[in-house]
Model the fold of this input.
Amino acid sequence: QLQVVESGGGLVQPGGSLRLSCAASGFTLGYYAIGWFRQAPGKEREGVSCISSSDSSTTYADSVKGRFTISRDNAKNTVYLQMNSLKPEDTAVYYCAADRKNYCSGSYRYWGPGTQVTVSS
Done:
């Protein structure tokens, strides 16, 4: 069964850091584009970052550029989202998604259950 599962969420103070993990099972993550998305209460889901499978190129939403870093460890079949300088507006449920394609554009077939990130003092 192909699935991805997020971990690493939690409560952090403004200015703090968290590292989210997206672990894949049932497939080799290196062949898949992986996206991170988030959804805050009362808001639509938005794309946060993505890493391609072809050349590991990365993209970021303007709201997180310079603060978040996406990376992959193919040996561990895991993608990470390092989040620094967190702000209250980063509070959301974060999801990772995977699709077997070279680049980040388009839809994603496999979605994780999400992990809650809360930034508050």
